[in-house]
Every structure is written in structure tokens, then in C-alpha cells.
Amino acid sequence: xxxxxxxxxxxxxxxxxxxxxxxxxxxxxxxxxxxxxxxxxxxxxxxxxxxxxxxxxxxxxxxxxxxxxxxxxxxxxxxxxxxxxxxxxxxxxxxxxxxxxxxxxxxxxxxxxxxxxxxxxxxxxxxxxxxxxxxxxxxxxxxxxxxxxxxxxxxxxxxxxxxxxxxxxxxxxxxxxxxxxxxxxxxxxxxxxxxxxxxxxxxxxxxxxxxxxxxxxxxxxxxxxxxxxxxxxxxxxxxxxxxxxxxxxxxxxxxxxxxxxxxxxxxxxxxxxxxxxxxxxxxxxxxxxxxxxxxxxxxxxxxxxxxxxxxxxxxxxxxxxxxxxxxxxxxxxxxxxxxxxxxxxxxxxxxxxxxxxxxxxxxxxxxxxxxxxxxxxxxxxxxxxxxxxxxxxxxxxxxxx
Length: 401
Fold this sequence. Notes:
401 residues; 25% strand
């Protein structure tokens, strides 16, 4: 898990999407070896097979987009906000502390930049809403500090199902939600602490203003293009139907260059790379917004600094899952290339990091907070004669990526 903080000035650059030819006779790249009984034909698999038969092999990016965000066919796959991939945030107590520390960080940044009379808290992909809920709890506890500041919450969420879960977590039941499916602001309400809250499908619909942006485990599910270096140059990895098994997918290599190759650095030394144009577009928009109106952004995700190669993988029930098996039943993810995000912001905003999440949380004082929490738990468990598991020890023994 890596953290990247951004603030400064910036401009927005557009990334154009180019059409991909529909006929491919790519070289066989790789395929799962799962037996037929472990490769169920899901509705999403049938949809993808029909699509490939109609238009030809598809990019990994298109595959990820179809599997993860295809609400029209009812196969929206989503993760638990805290810990689908075995993240350290496994207990409600620690997840709450994580949110509290983020809330303190936002307030600290607000104070360090002059205590603006208003700010927006914007979260991209807020999951079930638990993290922003913990942050808002800190805002309430430090209400005397924020009493002269006008705060509003803005959530960027494409899933209607998840937005309803978020509303149940965050809003005041006595205040009816305003819904308008055709509007960029498709839902509005009031949080339990009385703060206005709004939902949007796209970041560009969020009002511009002094803002703090949060993206926690958001960028690692954005679609990536995969490339393999060959004697003929870079070739994009596509997904095709296995000619030996009609209801099975496989990877193939494109026979020639594809438009997405433009995103590969000319001095790239790796033999396999993953690029995420969507991430670059979002970072550039965040940079532009922060440049115009002030604020900062924090990105926390599984990632690397331009060193890893093949990170595309699936998770189902907290276990690794073949990405091509039973699509629509597992979460798909690829590690975030923070060197790419940094390039998209270079010269536009000040960029700090990436740093290990472990380091970030220790700098924020998580050790002290855990010890206080542990002391209270120890006293309660002693009175109830229950076994006691040390939160501090568990935190110290974690393997950090």
C-alpha cells in the first residue's frame, strides 16, 4: 500500500481514445489451465464471448471495464472498502483509527494552508462509506476548530447499488434524500452530523472549489492496457476465445502496434508494462482543480514506483482468483504505477511520495492511538476473562508492500 500526496498548480490535458481494429490473429500468450468443472460459464462470460465473436479480441482494459462496471447487465463487482486483498485493515477498530488519522491529516492540511472559510471533502470510489464516515466523526469531535468553516461532502460513485449503501451509512434518516437520475448530481442528502452530501458519477461534475480529495484503493481497479516486449517491438496483450475450448478465454498478443502504445515511455527498460490512461486523466484533472482553487489530494493504494511488470490479478473471497475464470464473480485489480501518476502531475502540482502506508500512519501517530485503544480493550477483556490479542503487535508484524 502506497500513499501519494499532491498539491499545487496544474493544467488539464485530454487523452483521446483511438479505435482498435476488430480482426486479430495474435500469437498465443498465456491461458489458465483450470479444468472445465472449475470454469463455470457465467452470464458475463457469455456476454464477453458474444462480444469477441462479434468484434474480435478485446484489450485487457476493455475486459476490466466490462467485468467491473457493467451495470446494464447487472454484473457490477465491487470490493469491501477495507481489505478485499488482505489489507492490514481487518478489524473494525483499526479501520476506524485509519479513518480518524486521515481526518486529522485533512484538518492539519487545512490549518497549514490558511484555514479557508470553506472546503469540500471529495472521495473517489467511497466503497461502503465507512471511511468517510470515520473522517466525518473526527470533524465532529474537532468541531470547535472547524466551527467557522463551511464543509460539504462530495462522493464520486458510478454504482447505484453502492451509493445506496453509502447513503445508509452516512445520512440522517429523518432528512429525505433528493434523487434525480438525469442530473450530474444524482443524489443529495445531509450527513448524520448535519453536513451537506452529494453524489456524482464523474469527477468533472463535482463543483470546483477549495477541496481535499481522497482516493483509497480507487486507482487499482481502473482499466489497464498490458504490453509485452517482443523482437518486433511492443505488442499489446489482448483477450480472445480459446480455439480449443469454446467457452474459455485466453491471452493473445496483437500482431502489430496499437494506439495505446503511445503511453509507454521511450526509455522503458522492463519487458512487460501496464499503463492506465484513465488514471492519468484523473490525476491531471485533480491537478488542474487544485491549481485553480487550492487544496490537496491523498492517494492510498497498492502500487509501485515504475518497477513492477505483470500485476494484473483477481481476488474472490480474499483469495487469488484466475482473472479469466468465471468473469463477473471476482474483483480485478492491477498495482498502481505511481511513477506514471507523478509524471502526469509534474510541473503542475507539488508531489510528495510515494511512501509506505506503514510510514505514513506511524508519522500520524497510529502507535500511540493503538496503545490507548489496546489499554481499554485489555481492561474490558480482563474483567470478562476473555483472551486478548495485541493490536500493537499485530500492526508491527504486518508485511507491507
